């Protein structure tokens, strides 16, 4: 049975953990989107560190998802707060997606989604500081200042 949170054609998933400074970027973008009027066919999920579990459900043949927009931090050695739209071919360059804390690489599930005909887009933000395992709640100023532009990038992707 498909969870109600996945019964949309377009799905925006915020990834990361708000307890580790800039790793909370995905959560913050989702929080902003949840307070906006979005089309009926768009769902938003704060996936936290559980994105692989949501993606497993999306693989169900009855799931209507046609496009996934993942919002997360990246480390491409850019200026902190820099936003970058990434496609599926960039997944191998994102260390976090190849080995996660639960030994369930997110990249595998995103690649399978793509193979199943689901469009996959990643809106990444260059982190300045990720404090794991030390707890630090709150984004750095550079990442916080990119939130509105990140929301705009997501809204543009939803139009396509």
Query: Which parts are unreliable, with pLDDT below 50 for 5 consecutive residues or more?
Result: 98-103
Question: What's the number of helices?
Answer: 6
Estimate the mean pLDDT confidence.
87
The oligomeric state of the chains shown is single chain
- How many domains? The number is 1
Secondary-structure arrangement, i.e. CATH architecture? 3-Layer(aba) Sandwich
User: Nearest-angstrom radius of gyration?
Assistant: 15 Å
Structural class: alpha/beta
Distance between the termini: 28 Å
Number of strands: 5
The biggest sheet amounts to: 5 strands, mixed
**CATH fold name:** Rossmann fold
Strand content: 15-25%
GO biological process, one term: protein processing
Keywords: Aspartyl protease, Hydrolase, Protease
InterPro entries: Pept_A31_F420-red_hyd_d, Pept_HybD-like_dom_sf, Peptidase_A31
GO molecular function, one term: enzyme activator activity
Can you describe this structure?
- The protein has 160 residues and is an alpha/beta fold.
- The chain has one domain: 3-Layer(aba) Sandwich (Rossmann fold).
- The chain has six helices and five strands; from the N terminus they run E-H-E-H-E-E-H-H-E-H-H.
- Strands 2-1-3-5-4 form a five-stranded mixed beta sheet, sandwiched between helices.
- Helix 1 links the parallel strand 1 and strand 2.
- Helix 1 packs across helix 6 and helix 2 runs parallel beside helix 4.
- The longest helix is centred in the C-terminal third of the chain and has 13 residues.
- The chain is globular.
- 36% of the residues are buried.
- About 4% of the residues have low confidence.
């Amino acid at each position: 049975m498909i969870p109600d949170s996945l019964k949309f054609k377009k799905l925006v998933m915020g990834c990361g953990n708000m307890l580790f400074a800039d790793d909370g970027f995905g959560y913050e973008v989702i929080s902003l989107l949840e307070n906006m009027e979005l089309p009926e066919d768009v769902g938003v999920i704060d996936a936290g560190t559980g994105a692989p579990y949501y993606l497993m459900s999306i693989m169900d043949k009855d799931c209507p998802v046609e496009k996934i927009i993942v919002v997360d931090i990246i480390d491409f050695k850019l200026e902190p707060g820099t936003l970058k739209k990434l496609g599926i071919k960039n997944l191998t360059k994102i260390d976090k997606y190849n080995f996660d804390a639960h030994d369930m690489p997110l990249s595998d599930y995103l690649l399978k989604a793509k193979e199943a005909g689901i469009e996959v887009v990643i809106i990444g933000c260059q982190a300045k500081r990720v404090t794991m395992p030390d707890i630090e709640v709150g984004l750095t100023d550079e990442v916080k200042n990119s939130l509105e532009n990140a929301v705009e990038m997501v809204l543009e992707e939803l139009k396509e």
